[in-house]
Amino acid sequence: MSSTETRPSSADVSVAGELTDQRILVLDFGSQYAQLIARRVREQNVYCQIVRHDLTAQRIAALRPKGIILSGGPSSVYQDGAPQCDPALFDLGIPVLGICYGMQLACAALGGKVDHTPSREYGRASCNVQVSDGLFAGLPESIEVWMSHGDQVSAIADEFETLAATSTCPFAAIRHRSRPIFGMQFHPEVTHTPLGSQILRNFVRGVCGCEDSWRLSDFADEAIQRIRGIVGDRRVICGLSGGVDSSVVAALLYRAIGDQLSCILIDNGLLRKNEQSLVIDEFSNHFQTDLHVVDAEDRFLADLAGITEPQEKRRRIGHAFIECFKDEAEKIENAHFLAQGTLYPDVIESGADPDGPAATIKLHHNVGGLPDELGFELIEPLRDLFKDEVRRLGLELGLPESLVWRHPFPGPGLAVRCLGEVTRDKLAILREADAIVVQEIQDAGLYRETSQAFAVLLPVQSVGVMGDARTYDRAVAVRCVNTDDFMTADWSHLPYDLLAKISTRIINEVKGINRVCYDISSKPPATIEWE
Ligand code: XMP
Fold it and tell me: Where does the record place the GMPS ATP-PPase domain (predicted)?
């Protein structure tokens, strides 16, 4: 979503902060892993919130966290302009865990020394645990950890003691002798530190004393009450796209306000095979919402005629979407609210939370952001949740796994996978090829292991033979990637047999295709989509 643009006023449906008085704060020093730390803490059923690194100790105390985690970050602590924290936070008596840069910062503030390592350490290391209680309770003497740093702590103050070391890092983990302050040079939050979750658990449960207090079922109950209170007897409109986020928003709202919810699905003619019927099945037949399906294929395709430039395609699709949505929304009486599937990472990255980190530069290419002029008040019931939590919530609300685990699909849909000009014929070919890719990956049991898998219709024709005849038909690229965050991605190393089956089926079953290629580029330098 283009969250930095002016936004309609938003009803405050955030309930997470009130649901539990047990929260862990992550102070973000620019780490690529800050969100991962928060997700890992939440996996321990403890609420975790990411805040800006320069929050004052007073403000931190006012948020009453049970523990504070200082994230890693790309800077060197002594460098000019390096992000700092308020040193008074170490005096609050609240447990602190510094990870990587966070540890270096704590040490530098409390009498230790940080130096450049001769060469940047990046990768797995074997770590010797010297004190196996507290953070390392229940862990073996030797554990595998993930290092990623240029600097490291070279001396600790007398008030600190060493908990663990590696052959190149004498202070892999440390703690203050009398205060609940801990540091760790390695990253417990990444999966390359296999016992990292246990270490974080020891911190949030053992050291901070947090209990099992963050449960999605409680969240759902609380959010439903809050939504009912805010909405009263007015009506909420929710745009459905077939994707996970909007589906979960709709399911939650339906649970809260039943027939006061109206859903709108704009079929822009750029949806995947059977997408419209999937949404109708779920939201009209199963949930029986007031579902408005707008068949706008002609309108979108007319707007796209002759357009080949990807950003111009996006712009036109975005514009047409707003127009269609507006026309339909005007027909719905007493509509006051517009529900959106904004997630916690969107909130963090947009800088919308006053305690949260400053906005980061991230390319948001979502279309479908609806402007102020629609005049609705926004309701964003998922703004406290990470994607994996949204999925779990979706299942709790009764959405089927096939919908909850669907791969993301871009707002401009097949238009950015139909390279060059978008036409009805090309879309029909692409849709069939795409359905085969997805179905074969599902049948091979690999759908959940891949992050996105789809077909791209290339703007080339090539020569082939079929039977005795020469063909001059189109080519399709199969794109399949694995990624955690969609900012970087690796191409999926699918088995050859599966690729062979996909290729054979597409060429045999989709008229107009005589060649299939597999895209083996990573992001960066390539992107996931081709346009
Ligand atoms: P790229 O191609 O930039 O994609 O590597 C990263 C993720 O974003 C999705 N994507 C979009 N999503 N509107 C969207 O809503 C768009 O215009 C758009 N372009 C790319 C892409 O599918 C991937 O998940």
Answer: 214-406
